[in-house]
Amino acid sequence: MRKREYLDSVGDIDFKFYQTQDDFIVDEIPSIEFKGKGNSLVVHVKKTEMTTWDMIAAFSEYLAIPAQKIGYAGLKDKHATTTQYISVDVSYEKMIKQFYHKQIEVLDITRHSTGIRMGDLAGNRFSINLFEVDNIDAGRIEKCARKISKNGLPNYFGFQRFGRDSDSFKQARDMLSGEIFVEDAKIKNFLISIYQSEFFNQWLRERVEISQNENNGKFKLLEGDVYVDVKGKLSTPKIIPIKEFEAKKLTPTGLLCGRDVFRARDEALEIEAKYDDEFLQEKGYRREALIYPKDIECKYVKKQTMLNISFTLPKGSYATVFLESIADKNYSAKDVKKK
């Protein structure tokens, strides 16, 4: 797996951060406004040191209903304190009010006309403690974070996407070529997502390198790029839309290979084709090449040589990628595990 390259960084600060319940906080931001009435019960929950699947399993067992009957918008980190929303039928309201679990807290309940579906998510708010930071470096980190917020962050898939096994991309490729057979549907889908994600990351790395070498470190647009607007509509403008891009009205996208997907043209296609698999039968997608971290707040605690950085990212993007960009370093699960 090749190194993820970035456009902006401090570069010479070796700060530490850890994915623990005290040092890595994630709050889900829903994309819908709950009406306060309806046949679905929306439950705002806080969980610590457990996966979303484990949390749903706990509710499933307690309510004696299949896990598929519990709605959720997205998956959250295990090694963290996270808040998110789930939904169940309103008939379970009394039971939810009496629910107890040592790793799960019910923060609030309300009602809505429909259950929560995957993707009903605007983004996530992160609060992360960075350690071994002096006051000068704290200022440099904040300055770099705000520059990334303005110029854009390459929207790589983070190390979490690829599982614990660094050889998972090879397994995915062997599965798709027929060299190995995978019966379990969940594992098969997981490997396919790794296959698509690794190709996207490789494509984005090349585009970042081009930007570094040919555009003074700012993301370089190419003829034939596919853009997405603020409403999610894809297009390939005849003229490179520099003004719309700078105004953040259009964002270039990269390919998650598969069928029935809008592909690049002209100069952009020459690069994209290197990281495509037109024979992949699963559905393809486009993913934003850049995202823009918002609402950055920094608080330095001198006695602990610790900087708390808070920021908001759109759904599907990774806080660890933002921190990688600042540090100009690629992290792994081992790096963020507290010894």
Description:
This protein is α+β, with helices and mostly antiparallel strands. Among the domains are: 32-119, Pseudouridine synthase, CATH 3.30.2350; 156-288, Pseudouridine synthase (2-Layer Sandwich), CATH 3.30.2340.10. The chain is 28% helix and 25% strand. The chain has helices at residues 52-63, 93-97, 135-151, 168-177, 185-214, 242-246, 266-272, 319-327, and strands at 24-30, 40-48, 71-72, 81-89, 104-112, 121-131, 153-154, 227-229, 234-235, 250-256, 285-288, 290-291, 294-301, 306-314. The longest helix is centred in the middle third of the chain and has 30 residues, at 185-214. The chain starts with 23 loop residues before the first strand and ends in a 12-residue tail after the last helix. The model has no long low-confidence stretch (mean pLDDT 95). It catalyses: uridine(13) in tRNA = pseudouridine(13) in tRNA. Residues 152-309 form the TRUD domain. The active site is at residue 77. Keywords: Isomerase, tRNA processing.
